[in-house]
Design goal:
about 50% helix, 8-stranded mixed β-sheet, alpha/beta
Length: about 300
Amino acid sequence: MKMLSVVLPAYNEEKMIVRAAQEVGKVLENARISYELVFVDDGSKDATWRQIEETAKENPHITGVHFSRNFGKEAAMFAGLANAKGDCCVVMDCDLQHPPETLVEMYRLWEQGYEVVEGVKRTRGKESALHRASAGMFYKIISKAVGIDMSRASDFKLMDRRAVDAILEMPERNAFFRALSSWVGFRSASVEFDVQERTEGESKWSTGALIRYAVTNIVAFSSAPMQFVTFAGIGVFLLGIILGIQTLVKYFMGHAVEGFTTVILLILFIGSIIMISLGIIGYYISKIYEEVKGRPRYLISRKIDSRIEK
């Protein structure tokens, strides 16, 4: 039977390791699906790695990867995919907000020939009004920037080995997994799911973290912010033409040229546009600098291999 690898990035999730292994394993065993669970400890500060080690001693399906420090969720997902041995791979949250039961439906669609099966959010679960609003704004901005509808997208998705290999072969360091999995193409399907309530621990996604995540991934996957610089320059140029014409008309009509306040406001406005534009360009240059250095996405300090033969 062909094997399914379930990649579970974990950061400070010591309370969820055992439960995630038990619940995901139970669902897949009941469905008679051969599997391995790839836990990636993203430099956790708690006992997450110790829990992975203890679970692996009792469960032969566990593969464990431990980062030398925190490299972020994107790096953890790529590390999990790189160390997965399955014929297809699923990325899901270790906190079980992605329901394990959906794995079976995804796997069956893969058996029918679909190479990418997207997990699409039907509902987002309980969230604060501020978090819901910031998440909604984030997805609207990023959807327009990358040209892909991501209003209900998630990292919860199954990919055939061919799709996984295609993503892993991409040399870029600042990769946006959620968009790349759509960009690679292949025959795709979608499965709706309801985001489950977290039973242990707290969400790692604050409003500030969402903003940083949005900025980083928009820059990594799209040049849309650079177009802002161009359009802002065109806008200021047109404004200058209008004001120039107005000034000349007043001059030839014999009226004194007034507007000290207007001049100050224009200087402040144009100065702001210039500084914002320089900031955007500078951010892109910093990302180019990171790519040119060619440092690895992550560093693995320890690893545990599953004892299940493919």
